[in-house]
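[audit] Reproducing an earlier prediction to check determinism. Same input, same settings, fresh worker. If the tokens differ from the archived copy the diff job will pick it up downstream; this log only records the rerun itself.
[audit] input (432 residues):
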Amino acid sequence: MKRRTSFKPLLLSFSLFVCGYATAATDCGGITLSACPTPFDQHLPNTHDMLNWDQKDRVVGFRNDYRNYAGDVFRHGPSMPLAHADKTLVDARYQINGNTYHLADYLKRENVAGMLVLKNGKVAYKYFAEGNTDSTLWTSRSVGKSVVSTLVGVAIKQGKIHSLDDKVTAYEPDLKGTAWDGVTLKQLIQHTSGVAWNEDYTNPKSDFAQLTQCEAQAGTYDCVRNIVTHLKRAHPAGQQWSYSSGGAWLLGDVLEHATGMSLAAYLQQTLWQPNGMASDGVWHAYQPGKHDVGAHGFNATLEDWARFGEFILRDGRLPNGKQILPANWVNDAANWTKAQHSVSPAHPDGLYGYQWWNNAIPANAQHVVPAPAEGLQHSLWALGIYGQIIMVNRAENLVIVQWSTWPQAEPSFSAQPLEAALMYSAIAQQLH
């Protein structure tokens, strides 16, 4: 199951100039970064088995995806350290099914490998486990979808994409006559395209499993594009919500066609450097320098995950006040689709927006504290399999990020996602 990887970082460093900003650059196991992430694991798990990694393999794999796959680097520029909050988080607790759990319990129950809480833009709590550090680059899984959807908003603000009402085929004309013909960008970004996709992480023959196999071999872009191009139509566009990493991959591909840049290059130019991120990041590339994966594959430090959350909390404004998202974009991103299967008794307002989730405490949850009415309503949640999270709540000026290695890729919403909603709501109460 394992393959031995032995890298010897070069002792010789050189200077890399990015937009007038000079930074030392070093070979970090085959990829050049301004500073090598730590820890640097010598033995990496086999990417073919990603969906079947054990807990130890997930820790090592998730913090080494930046070198376990081909990647495009997005460089940082000048940055300011995050300030520390006057009021720090010491503990928070929640109740479920008659049991009370404290923050320390939560960290164990959720297999948390890193967690950061920003209140009013300042660090109220930081936690690392499994040897992770401030320089660790952790992979996003589907948290990357929320980054891509945000970049789509930036491209609309810049005029590179006209509107979410545009058809996919306006940017990908070779998809005319396929199941994607007639689908709008809004339907794509809300996962209501009606194009069939099997996201089952436990089925080795699912579309998602086939995508991961493409990623573990040469010719990844053509392999994935072949899968996505030949999908069939399941429902009329806009009628039903159905989560689709294939559709998310296509959204990223549309963005690259519209901007003429890879996701990493566009992120670096428009957001990463202007927003003052402190470290380089790496995006999983299907064709290095040309095509990055729109469904996941964003790798960055814990603090830079949080800085991205702060950008969303500021409604798309950079630290200098410049607005780079369209007016009302963040509100629209959290205007959950009312398509069938998005609305339920647990989430009567809907479950999904512009590749952000509504993970508020379920409205029908019983025997829980905080109660649903006390939860973080109107929060935006970027969620990735195995427990990767960015939560943004503008009412409380609160951003929480979490790295995890949940035992299951996608547990039911009555398990780890519910406990995350309860804990985050309890944290909000403690810091209010």
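[audit] rerun output stored. Observation attached for the diff report: Residues 1-20 have pLDDT under 50 and may be disordered.
[audit] end
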